[in-house]
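ok new one. same drill as before - C-alpha cells go in, u give me an amino acid for every spot. 258 of them this time. try not to just spam alanines like last time pls lmao
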C-alpha cells in the first residue's frame, strides 16, 4: 500500500464532570450524577447511552500501515488525560495525512472527537481542512461522507442507509476473524470505574485489528488489492501478532488460527 492508512477506534465513558455542570449538580458524587444523567436519557430516548457530547474519551487505538510496516498501539499512556489523547490523535492525522478507516467512525467516533476537541481547545488543522490551507483538500478531505479519505466501513457497506448497519463483531466472525474477545462496549464504563484501563486499551486495539482485516477484504473486493497483495497484507498482520506477545495479541492470534 502506497499511501498511509490509519485505522482508529475510541472507547468512551459517560462524562460525569460535564453532566455535573449541565444538570447543576456541582458537589454531587459520581453515583448520584450517573443516576441522574442515565434516568434523564432513559426518559428521553429509552436508553442510558449518552449523546456524543457527553462521552468522555478514555482510549484511542490506532493501526498504521505505512511503507513496509504495520503498527498497532494505543495513544498516550494509561495515565494520559482526555485532552492529551484527543490532541495526539489529531497530531497523527497532521503528520501522516493518512486515509482514515473506522467502523461507525462517522456515526460515533468522529463526532465524539469533534466535541471533545472543542471542549479541550484541541488543534486539528489538517483534519478540518477543506481547501483553505491545502488546495487538494478541497476535493479530497476527511469531511465528505461519500468519499474514501475517511472510510467508515459500516456506513459504506450498508450503502449509507443506516437501516442495514451491521455490528463489527458479527462481520468479523462471518469472515473467520476473532471478533470481540472478552469485552465489549457495554462493559467499558464498569471496567473504567474499577481502574482497568489497561484492559480497555487492549480491547480497543483488538477492535482496530478486526477493522483492519475487514478493510483488507473490502479493498480486495473493490479491486484495490490483487490476490497476492491481499495475502501479503494478511501475512504482515500475522507477523505483527507473532512479534507482539502481549496477552491480548496472543489471544487474538489463537482465535484467528482456530
Amino acid at each position: 500500500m502506497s499511501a498511509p492508512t490509519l485505522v482508529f477506534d475510541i472507547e468512551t465513558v459517560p462524562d460525569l464532570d460535564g453532566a455535573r455542570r449541565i444538570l447543576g449538580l456541582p458537589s454531587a458524587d459520581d453515583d448520584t450524577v450517573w443516576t441522574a444523567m442515565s434516568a434523564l436519557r432513559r426518559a428521553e430516548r429509552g436508553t442510558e447511552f449518552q449523546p456524543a457530547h457527553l462521552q468522555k474519551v478514555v482510549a484511542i487505538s490506532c493501526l498504521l500501515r505505512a511503507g513496509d510496516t504495520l503498527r498497532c498501539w494505543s495513544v498516550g499512556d494509561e495515565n494520559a488525560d482526555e485532552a492529551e489523547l484527543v490532541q495526539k490523535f489529531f497530531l497523527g492525522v497532521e503528520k501522516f495525512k493518512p486515509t482514515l478507516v473506522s467502523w461507525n467512525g462517522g456515526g460515533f467516533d468522529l463526532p465524539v472527537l469533534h466535541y471533545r476537541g472543542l471542549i479541550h481547545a484541541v488543534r486539528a488543522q489538517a483534519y478540518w481542512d477543506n481547501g483553505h490551507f491545502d488546495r487538494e483538500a478541497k476535493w479530497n478531505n476527511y469531511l465528505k461522507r461519500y468519499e474514501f479519505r475517511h472510510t467508515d466501513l459500516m456506513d459504506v457497506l450498508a450503502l449509507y442507509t443506516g437501516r442495514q448497519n451491521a455490528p463489527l463483531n458479527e462481520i468479523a466472525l462471518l469472515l473467520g476473524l476473532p471478533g470481540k474477545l472478552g469485552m465489549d462496549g457495554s462493559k467499558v464504563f464498569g471496567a473504567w470505574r474499577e481502574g482497568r484501563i489497561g484492559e480497555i486499551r487492549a480491547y480497543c486495539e483488538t477492535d482496530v485489528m478486526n477493522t483492519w482485516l475487514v478493510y483488507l477484504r473490502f479493498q480486495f473486493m473493490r479491486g484495490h488489492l490483487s490476490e497476492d497483495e491481499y495475502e501479503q497484507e494478511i501475512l504482515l498482520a500475522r507477523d505483527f501478532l507473532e512479534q507482539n506477545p502481549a496477552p491480548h495479541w496472543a489471544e487474538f492470534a489463537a482465535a484467528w488460527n482456530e
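The longest strand covers residues 55-66. and btw The radius of gyration is 19 Å.
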